[in-house]
Amino acid sequence: MLNPISFRPGPVTFWTTLVYLALLIPIVIINEDPPPAPSKSPYAGVNLTEAWFDLATITRGYHPYNSHFNDEVREILLGRIEDILKENDVKFNIYGSGSSKSQAAVTVFNDMTANSTVLMSSGGGTNAGHKSTAATAAYFEGTNIIVYIRGKADDQDDFWEAGELEETRRNGKGLTLLNAHYDSVSTGFGATDNGMGVVTVLQALKYFTRPDHQPERGIVILFNNGEEDWLYGARAFGQSPLLPYVHTFLNVEGAGAGGRALLFRTSDKEVTQAYKGTSDPFGTVIGSDAFGLGVIKSGTDYSVLHDAFGQRGLDLAFFKPRARYHTNQDDARHTSRASLWHMLSATIHTMERLSGDTGDTFTGPRSDGAHDKVDNGSPSHGVWFDLFGKGFVLFDLHSMFAWSLTVLIATPLILILVTYILHKTDKYYFFTSKVKTYEGSESSTVSVGGLKGLFRFPLALTVAGALTLGTGFLMRKENPFIIYSSPYSVWAMTISLFYFSFWCIMRGANFARPSALSRGYVNIWLFIIGWAILVAVTVAEDRQKIGAGYIFVFLQGALFLTTLISFLELFVLPKRKTWAMYVREEHETGDDLVASPHDHPDHQQSPLIPPIPHHESLSVPTTRTSTASGPSPTSAGGHDDEDDEPNERTPLVGGNATGEVRTTFATTYRRSISTLVNGVRKIDDGNGEPYEHEQPWSGRLPSWLWFFQFLILGPFIIILAAQTGLMLTDAVHQTGSDGSNLLLPYLLVFLFTALLILPVTPFIHRVTHHLPIFLLVVFVSTFIYNLVAFPFSANNRYKTFFLQTIDLDSGENKVCYSGVEEYVRPIIAEMPSAWGREISCGPSRRPELVTCCYDGSAVPPRLNDDLADGVPPEKGYSDLVSFNVTRGDGNTASIEIDAKNTKACFLSFKKPVTSFTVKGGSGWDDRFGQYPDSGVGLIKLWRRDWSTPWTVDFEWSDVEDDRIPNEEKAIDASLRDPDFAVQDSGMDGAVTCMWSDANVAGTIPALDEGLKFAPVWAALTKTAEGLVEGKKVFLV
Q1: Residue 97: Cβ within 10 Å count
Q2: In whole angstroms, how far apart are CA 663 and each of 188, 351, 649?
Q3: For residue 972, what are the CA distances in angstroms to 217, 967, 975?
Q4: Which whole number is the average pLDDT over 424-439?
Q5: With the CA atoms of 581, 583, 585 and 591 taken in that order, what torsion angle do they form, in degrees rounded to the nearest 10?
Q6: For 314-366, what is each residue's pLDDT tens digit?
Q7: Main-chain dihedrals φ then ψ at residue 1031, nearest 5 degrees
Q8: CA-CA distance, 1000 to 483, in Å (whole number)?
Q9: How does DSSP classify residue 948?
Q10: Which end of the chain is less congested by CB atoms within 10 angstroms, N or C?
Q11: Contact 1031, 991 (CB under 8 A)
Q12: Residues with Cβ < 8 Å from 868, sequence gap 6 or more?
């Protein structure tokens, strides 16, 4: 009966296929669908139905900061907060209202005063006609809503007002912040970005304000406004009196449009410990490290709370599908209650753990010694990942570094020691081609075939890798966006090609030159490659505190064990010299016995070493009685060789091969050895047969050890590779429309395909042809599909970026779409307003994309509500923006700016501004960067209401910005005001205002047209802060 786990084609094919299917199917299901919401909430007071209703309420319209519905959403939230507190019968105060209740459990901060003036990154948003590479600054007026829930361990007074007057700091245990932004983008309803975060925070407020759920440490709930336009709301929180007491935070966010809420990133192991234990964890430290290394460019409020304010915390966010992100499909219809529950349950669990820690975990001096940030203890770096969306593994990076060093140092030494022992016992068959039977005699060697299979793995890996990687490059060239809508088709193509091509080489080589050492050699190669990778991983752990290489740490540990097993199983084999002596004896004695084999009773077949009817690799001197390849010429050819010249091997007493056995000293010696060996054989009565045509000595190798090697190497690595690969692919496969690298998703699929197939490579040469042939069919089918299929669909729409620009002085109006020109032009061709118009394309503000524009006079935006019905909108453009510039002493000036129906205007300068202040502003905030020595070229101005003008005082230097192109400096002299006495020290600039409110049909007809007439496979999203930009120049 066949051993069900023997190293034979049937069992190998069955078990490897079964394990892969048993692991990959649930991983794919878990990756695609969030766990169902429970019929009854396990958290008392938390109401999922109520949360879903709130979501529908606040997402019924676009609500960017610069929109009227944003004001409505703010009032809705204030009303819901009050309703929840009254429902829970909570005593609460409204901060600054003049009436306060002693020891109130809750204090509400309706913040309409905070503002911030900060240095901005050079990354996003509009450049507002700004040609200089000088820095960008922003002035923002916040409209945050803050709710403080008093903890049991908190001081029972308004400690945030008196704390700085005390000799010792108040409320030393600190507070925990729960943050969500309530604004959306101008082209998305914001269901997952960030409506779900908002309603999650509302339910958390309801839970923690119940008397039986009062937290141990106080909780600060922050509904911030203005996140979408570069994290302004979180920056404005920097002016809150509660900020100095916040030690930890949880930020809930949306960077996709559904699915599971991913643990995006965390600051340290201790805060991650609070997330551990949630019912359905999901995430990996790889994402956190990608943010830290700058691989991921986008930001969330986490960047402000952690990087600028020094708080320790977590980022919990939806991350897919990106095709719906920031579009009109980010609505309640395209998400689910299951997704909402996944975020909500993780939030409440994490906040309970964070606020429930009353020890010293989050208190004490900072490890970085920063005196301008909160003293919240010394964090440690963590490594974490989920398993099947249920288990959560967490350990500190220092432990992984210690383990990595141990593996790097100890495992090679152990293998070297085992190799030494095998050599001493003469059983090291690896890297052994021939064995001498007599010392000093080159002619007395026997081939053991120990080099067979040595170079198969690197050859197979190179060919399979080259073919698979080449296919990825081909897709990038011919149909790069196919992975946008069909990632599983790309996965199937890549996996099937890699597996099939690898199997072909390994199986073909084993067919041509069978080798029992093939499995061992693959393990050795894998160990060497894994060791080299682990060196780099260990350096990254130590130098850059990167824990993303944990897969390779586990992999190398498994490879050590499988390689060790391959070495240890050699101990069951006969000694190499014993084997060679036996082979030589069998052949030579067999030659002597051709004529009368029954005359030698001491000649018997070894039970230890299988019978060898013909050993082609035996190398012995050619005599009358023996050849290197088999029977003597006499026995084979039938002619007499009595006339052969005698030599040193000729027996003293004559005889010939056809008549009698020659008796010599050598044959007597060999029979003595045979007798000794036969004595050893009696210890073991096994009679293993080698597999097919593999080396005859391999029959004694255990045929079941491969199964345990596969269990060590396979399941855990398959789980890590599959779920991590799918997660990272989901994160990037639809970012190509944003201008991201189109090759990156294919490289990720290739890398994780190699990791996924790696566990089966030592055994793949035993797999039957049925599975590879099936995979070949899969490859051909998916390859053809991936080459010819259209890459977008109604559920996976291509995102193009919309912007309309107006020159408010001349009335020139352009409608622009940005994206890949191949797809942008067909989209524009569907727009009635573009018919017959010239379409010009040029470089985009986004890298790798182009911007195509056409005359938009057929669809002028209606931005001025003061115009009477029937009056063309163009008539009111000149009145949309007004400003008054006043020249001061020297190179100083003041400009007052007002605009109709907008909260955002940007001020750009032809020369860098060396200093500026905004009337009513709180001054420059150094926490976001010092004022640049090179000056500021663009100031983004945001106001909280619709009517208060901005007044900006600024100063500039006579030195022009050398980074401005010369043609930009050549301003028409006729534009200069002749009344200015000193023209050379003047200043030129522009005021560009943004309009972002598209909730009323007809306000921005070009956008309405785009949403109506765009192909079903296309979606529109915003290019910058405004959907419409109107520009006016000024001269000083």
Answers
A1: 9
A2: 98, 91, 11
A3: 64, 11, 6
A4: 89
A5: -160
A6: 999 999 999 999 999 999 999 999 999 999 999 999 999 999 999 999 999 99
A7: -120, 140
A8: 36
A9: P
A10: N
A11: yes
A12: none
DSSP 8-state class, residue 603: -
- Contact at 8 Å (CB) between 368 and 229? no
CA distance 743 to 729: 12
If pLDDT is split at 50, 70 and 90, which confidence band does 132 have? low
Residues 6+ apart with CB under 8 A from 268: 312, 379, 380, 381, 382
**Looking at the predicted structure, is the pLDDT value of residue 606 above 60?**
no
CB 444 within 8 A of CB 592: no
Cβ-based neighbours of 63, under 8 Å, separated by 6 or more:
69, 70, 72, 73, 182, 183, 184, 190
Q: pTM to 2 decimals?
A: 0.88
User: What burial letters (b/e) apply to 417-440, b meaning 16+ CB within 10 Å?
Assistant: ebeeebeeebbbbbebebbbbeee
DSSP string, 300-340: -HHIIIIIIT--EEEEEEE---TTTTTSTT-SGGGS-HHHH
Distance of CA 896 to the CA centre of its chain: 47
CB 934 within 8 A of CB 132: no
Q: Is 167 an active-site residue?
A: no
Tell me: pLDDT of 626 over 50.
no
Chain mean pLDDT for the chain: 88
Which of 468, 348, 1007 lies closest to 747, judged by CA? Answer: 468
**Confidence class for position 652, pLDDT limits 50, 70, 90:** very low
Q: Which distant-in-sequence residues (6+ apart) come within 8 Å of 45 by Cβ?
A: 88, 206, 207, 210, 213
Can you tell me whether residue 879 is helix, strand or coil?
helix
d(CA 206, CA 659): 106
Is the pLDDT at 409 greater than 80? The verdict is: yes
Q: Is 519 helix (H, G, I), strand (E, B) or coil?
A: helix
Beta strands in 79-132 (DSSP E): 92-94, 106-110, 115-120
Distance CA 545, CA 552 (A): 15
Which is the catalytic residue, given 227, 228, 352, 586?
Answer: 227
Q: Which residues contact 503 (CB under 8 A, 6 or more apart)?
A: 764, 765, 767, 772
Alpha-carbon span 466 to 562, nearest angstrom: 26
Token couple for 103: 């020891």
> How far is CA 5 from each of CA 543, 563, 706, 770, rounded to the nearest angstrom?
45, 19, 8, 19
CA dist 148 and 355 (Å) reads 13
What the block records as the tokens of 326 is 């920031």
Ranges of beta strands (E only) in 451-507 are none
d(CA 110, CA 113): 9
Looking at the DSSP bridge assignments, the partners of residue 910 are none
- E strands, 919-984, where? 936-942, 950-956
Characterize the bridge pairing of strands 850-855 and 813-819: antiparallel
d(CA 706, CA 540): 33
pLDDT confidence of residue 797? 97
Is pLDDT above 50 for 126? Answer: yes
Q: What is the pLDDT of residues 883-905, one digit of tens each?
A: 999 999 999 999 999 999 999 99
Q: How far is CA 10 from CA 7, 499, 575, in A?
A: 8, 18, 31
